[in-house]
Design a protein that fits this description.
InterPro entries: MFS, MFS_Cyanate_Porter, MFS_dom, MFS_trans_sf. This protein is mainly α and 408 residues long. The protein is built from 18 helices and no strands. The N terminus is likely disordered.
């Protein structure tokens, strides 16, 4: 197989690639989480109803679901490195457009940001499968940590930038342009040096349609159920805490604690997974941690700080596991991209449905207990699906379909 001639030695190129992966990952949540702290200012500026303001948080999830199936095609057509660079360009354009001023650009820019994040979400697991096949767990943990840390910083700085520095909501959101611009600068060397390697991933043996495989559905449902529960709590945790007697300031602090806790598994999960033959026990333990946190919020709300931290850690660990599964349960980068596209399409469709459905349950019952019970039941279902997805086996490609499974 013919490859591009390396300009740097292998070690510096690998370090540069790892830095690029981390910087790309830093863009995959922050532009969305940074919106919430200034959403009230945006509502006031444009006299938006609650429903229209809610659309700003739902639009990215819908974009994730709609664009995710297209991302594997982009990788096959242009190569993984170029497709990821295009995702960063989309992100930068969306950040600028969202902050341009008119109401229409606010919504269009938000959708464009969602499209860019969707491509990055889908293709990073495929890139890891191609370039770090023996270190999928550790590199996934590192980029998940970057994703969570950047999201926490964006949430913490958006309001102070808007008010304390006099930038307003548009200036605060525009400041996030630094993330995709820096990532593009560091990713640029990959466009030349890794072009030939990208083509090798595109020509790998294809699996039969990914949607036909039970293991693909197990990974997809594990991610989808986790996304549903996580985005329900992203949307409704402050209201749930308010109904338990917490002030708006306390609820906001606990909401931030949840996001911070979701980044911590990136520090510990990668090294742990590397030592295990399969991930069943980890999937079970983290899912049950989520269930326990939901039960605690329902019955012992006075310990909300503990439950919110447990919930953030558990859901953060589950999303990292889901991302790892996309590489660990596939045989080649093309298959990993297809599974990633499927899981994120279904997962974010469920996530987009979660907040309005759970909000509707609250409106019917005039209480959050039923809503929390539904999420608790879904977290137990996630534990069961995680046990199946965590088994040490792979989706067979066309070239191995007639033989024994790749792993038992």
């Amino acid at each position: 197989m013919r490859q591009a001639r390396p300009v740097l030695s292998a070690a510096p190129r690998t370090v540069l690639l790892l830095i690029g992966i981390v910087l790309v990952a830093a863009n995959l949540r922050a532009p969305i989480t940074g919106l919430a702290p200034v959403l009230g200012m945006i509502q006031e500026t444009f006299a938006l109803s609650t429903a229209h303001a809610g659309l700003l948080t739902t639009l990215p999830l819908l974009a994730f679901a709609l664009v995710s199936p297209v991302a594997p095609w982009l990788a096959r057509r242009f190569g993984l490195a170029r497709a990821l660079f295009a995702a960063l360009v989309l992100l930068a354009a969306g950040v600028v457009l969202r902050s341009a001023g008119p109401a229409w650009s606010l919504f269009v820019g938000t959708a464009v940001i969602g499209a860019g994040i969707a491509v990055g979400n889908v293709l990073l697991p495929a890139l890891l499968k191609r370039d770090f096949p023996t270190r999928i767990a550790s590199v996934t943990g590192a980029y998940a940590l970057a994703m969570g840390a950047a999201a926490a910083v964006a949430s913490a700085t958006a309001f102070p930038l808007a008010t304390g520095f006099g930038l307003g909501w548009s200036g605060a959101l525009l400041a996030m342009l630094v993330l995709p611009v820096v990532a593009m600068l560091l990713w640029w060397p990959q466009l030349g040096e890794r072009a030939a390697v990208a083509q090798s991933g595109g020509g790998a043996p294809a699996a039969s349609p990914i949607w036909r495989h039970p293991l693909a559905w197990q990974v997809t449902l594990f991610m989808g159920l986790n996304s549903f529960i996580y985005y329900v709590m992203i949307g409704w945790l402050p209201a749930i805490l308010a109904s338990r007697g917490y002030s708006a300031a306390e609820a906001g602090s606990l909401h931030g604690l949840m996001q911070l806790a979701s980044a911590i598994p990136g520090l510990v999960l990668g090294p742990l997974i590397q030592r295990l033959n399969d991930q069943r026990r980890v999937a079970l333990a983290t899912s049950l941690l989520v269930a326990g946190a939901l039960l605690g919020l329902q019955w012992l709300p006075q310990l909300a700080g503990l439950w919110v931290a447990c919930f953030g850690f558990g859901t953060g660990a589950c999303i990292i596991l889901a991302l790892m599964f996309m590489g660990l349960r596939t045989e080649n980068p093309r298959q990993a991209a297809a599974l990633s596209g499927m899981a994120q399409c279904v997962g974010y469709l469920l996530a987009a449905c979660g907040p309005p459905l759970i909000g509707g349950l609250h409106d019917r019952s005039q209480d959050w207990n039923l809503a929390l019970t539904v999420c608790l039941a879904l977290s137990l279902a996630m534990a069961a699906v995680g046990m199946l997805a965590g088994r040490n086996r792979r989706i067979r490609s066309a070239s191995t379909a007639a033989s024994t499974p790749a792993a038992g």
